[in-house]
Design goal:
Largest sheet: 6 strands, parallel
Radius of gyration: 17 Å
Helix content: 25-40%
Number of helices: 6
Oligomer: single chain
Structural class: alpha/beta
Shape: globular
Length: 192
């Protein structure tokens, strides 16, 4: 089971530990994300899942809600001895990685279309700080087609999303879409 932590100070993580950051919007967290998290945890001693505030993407859930969903899903994860922490961030990813003493940024790739964008991002990050490496993990075959955007579209239109997200996330999405359908709007969420 993962050691779930809310906040870990730099002093609590010894210098000998390999620290990695897996950033994303996680709106919502999917089984594809969970696959990457589990595999990333085997590459580092301490994995920090960075939930980007990213209001520009117009997330369905507030930052606090997304952090809570990620924490709920990783709580039961077998991380193979690695500790996992979930934190929100709203600054430059490289600045966040440096603040966390991370030497690795982990990114998941689903398809060739992801690669071009991620390749450019990795190049920019390397220019900002060449001491922080980017590691790409290919999505497992059964998760390559899953995206948060598609999960939301399918769920909003009444499709079965239970194969793409955890039962907890599917329930939260169903509740949100029921509220949306009931009054025609999504409840206002704060980005705290």
């Amino acid at each position: 089971m993962a050691t779930s932590q809310t906040e870990t100070s730099k002093a609590e993580i010894s210098k000998g530990h390999r620290i990695g950051v897996y950033p994303g919007t996680f709106d919502p967290i999917t089984n594809g994300h969970m696959d990457i998290i589990q595999r990333a945890a085997r590459q580092v001693d301490h994995l920090i899942i960075g939930v980007a505030r990213n209001a520009g993407k117009g997330p369905l859930y507030s930052t606090d809600e997304r952090v809570a969903m990620v924490r709920e899903d990783v709580a039961a994860l077998n991380a193979g001895g690695a500790s996992i922490e979930v934190r929100a961030f709203d600054n430059l990813l490289m600045h966040f990685a440096i603040e966390m003493n991370a030497r690795v940024i982990i990114r998941g790739l689903r398809a060739v279309s992801d690669f071009e964008y991620e390749f450019q991002m990795a190049g920019m990050n390397a220019r900002l700080n060449p001491k922080v490496e980017t590691i790409f993990l290919m999505s497992s075959e059964k998760h390559q087609f899953i995206s948060s955007r598609f999960v939301k579209e399918i769920g909003r239109l009444g499709g079965d999303i239970r194969h793409f997200v955890s039962a907890r996330v599917a329930e939260r999405l169903a509740e949100r879409f029921a509220l949306e359908a009931g009054n025609g709007t999504v409840p206002t969420t704060s980005q705290t």
